[in-house]
Amino acid sequence: MHCFKRHLFAYIVVNIFLVGLYFSNYKQGETAGYWFIYPLFG
Fold it and tell me: Domain residues of the chain, as ranges?
């Protein structure tokens, strides 16, 4: 369960980082792709 929480925390941090990139660059085509790719690597 501890590993799950750690993975969930990392997932949230990465998503917040990607949101920051999304609003700073406004490149929806490039940034949005990572939202769907990241869970596959998890």
Answer: 2-41
